[in-house]
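User: Hi! I'm working on a homework problem where we have to compare a predicted structure to a textbook description. Could you give me the structure for the chain below?
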Amino acid sequence: MQQKFARYAAVLPMTALLLAVPCYADETSETPVLEYDDMGMYTVNDSYITFGYAEGGGVIITECQKALQGDLVIPEILDNQPVIGIGEGAFYEVKGLTAVTLPDTVTEIGAGAFYCCEALQRIDLPEGLTTIGESAFYQCASLKAVDIPDGITTIPDSCFAQCYALTDLTLPAALETIEAEAFYASGQNMDALLLPDTLTEVGELAFYGWSRITTVTIPNALQTLGDYVFDGCDALQEICVASDNPCYTSVEGVLYNQVQTRLIKYPADKQGESYTLPDSATTVDGWAFVGAKHLKHIDLNNAVTIGEEAFYSCTALETVSMSDAVSELPAAAFTLCSALKEITIPRSCTSIGAYCFTGCTALREVTVPASVTKIGDYAFGFDFDTTTQQVQKLKRFRMNVQVGSEGIAYAKKSDISYRSNSKVGWIVGICVAVAMIAAVIIIVVRHRRNVVRIAAGPDKGKPVAKKNRTNSKNGGK
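Assistant: Happy to help. Predicted C-alpha cells:
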C-alpha cells in the first residue's frame, strides 16, 4: 500500500514554496484536485503549512511539515480568501498530528490527505464537505470516531482502511457508494454496522475484519455487493436483507441472490453443525464459507460450481457431500479444513486446483478418479504453516489412483504414497474368481442333494426326484 501512495510524497512542495511557481493537478489522477498558482506559507506550532490559490478563488492547503506535533485548527481565511480544500497528500505521514478541525468552508479533501497520520485521534469534518479522495485517512490507526457529513455520496477506495481504533462511525444519510476496502480492518472495536437505505453499491473487502458485529442488514436499494465484503467478520451470525431488495435474499441468515441460485455468504459464527443448500442453488461463491467455525457437515446438493477458497479455514468441517456433476474443485477450496476426514471426488471432476486440500491434516486417504486431467501444486498430501507461509508433506497420507492417470503422475511428482489400480485390480480379480468358484460348488452340491439314481429296473440310470422314490420297507406305499 505504501508503494501505491508514494506519489503523494513526490508531489508535495518542500522548502522553496515561497516562490511563485505554478502547480497543476496530475491529469491522470483518479481524484480531481483543484488547480492553483501562487503559493504561500504560514506557521503553526513552529512548523510550516503551505497553501496555494485555487483557479476559481479560494485557498487549498498543500503541505504540512512532518515535524508538526499536537492538535491543528485550520483557519477559515488565509490571505483574505476562504480555505476550500485539503490537497492531495497534504498531511502525508505527519505522525505527530493528534487532532484536526476543518473550517466550514472546506468542500474537498484530496487523496491521501491524511495518509498514515498514526497519532490522529479526531477529525472534525465540516457539513459542507462534498468530496473525500481515496485513502484520505488510510492507516490513521488512532482515529476513534468519524461522523461523515450528509453531503458525501461516495466513500472511495481505502478511505478509512486500517483505522484500527475506530469505535464510532456515522455514515451519511444519502450515501450511495462504498468502494473497495473503504473500511478494511477498521471495525475490530465496532459492535454494530448500520448501512443507510440509499446505499446502492459496496465494493470488495469493504468491511473485512469487522470481527465484533453479529448481524448486518442489506438495505432495499443495494444492487451490487463486491467479493469478500464481510470476510473476517468472525462474530457474524446472520445476514438479513430488507424485504423489498430486488437482488438479494436471506435464507435462515445465509445470503443468496434473489432467485437463490448463488450462495454468496454463510456467516462465520452461524450456529449449527450441518447445512444443506436449497435445491435451487447451483453456485457457491468464492470465500462463501470462509472461517465457518461451527460447520461440520455440508451437503452441496445440486451445486455444480464452487468458487476459489469457498471453504477456506472451516476448521470444524468433517464431511462434504457434492453433486456428481461437479467438474472442478478450484484453488484452495478446502485449504486448512483441518478436521476433514473424508472426501469423495465425483467422476465428473476434471480439474483440482492448487492447494485445494492443503492443510487437511485429518484426511489420510483420497481416491482420484481417472476423469481428473489437471491437478495443481500441493493439491493433496501437504500441510500449510500459516506463520512461515511454507508447505510441508503430510505423513501417512495415501492416494488411490489409476495407472496412466493424472493422479498417479501427481503422486510421483510430489513423492506421495499411492496405490494404483494394477494392484487393486489383481486383488479384486482374485476375489471375483474365488466367489465364482464358490458359487459353482454350491450349485453342484445342492443339485446332487436333490437328485438320486434308481439302481435297477427299466429306468436304470435315469435320475428320479426324491419325492418319487419308493419305500422298500412298506411296499412302495
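For your comparison, note the following. The helical segments are 6-11, 406-413, 421-449. The two ends are 108 Å apart (CA to CA). Good luck with the assignment!
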